[in-house]
Specification:
Length: 89
């Protein structure tokens, strides 16, 4: 089962707060996969999505197919010399 840590949930919540505008009032962050690997984008929750809440608010969604591909992974926060970011492990 794919998991997110408490720290990752807080980081995603902060990302959504920074991106909040009237146009994306109910936005969530979606993990997607392309030829370069995995990425994040603002999106809307879909009926088939797996949702991940932080403090009672959905902050992350992934579609069913990608959820299976990430089955044993965890999204966490990592701090490096370049700064703080999300890391998939």
């Amino acid at each position: 089962m794919f998991k997110i840590t408490e720290a990752a949930g807080a980081h995603l919540s902060d990302m959504l707060a920074e991106a909040e505008t009237p146009e994306n009032e109910n936005a969530v962050i979606r993990i997607f996969q392309n030829k370069d690997g995995f990425g994040l984008m603002l999106s809307q929750e879909g009926p088939e999505d797996t949702t991940f809440p932080h403090e009672g608010v959905t902050v992350l969604v992934i579609d069913e197919e990608l959820s299976q591909a990430l089955e044993n992974k965890t999204l966490d926060v990592e701090t490096t010399e370049s700064g703080t970011g999300l890391q998939l492990r």
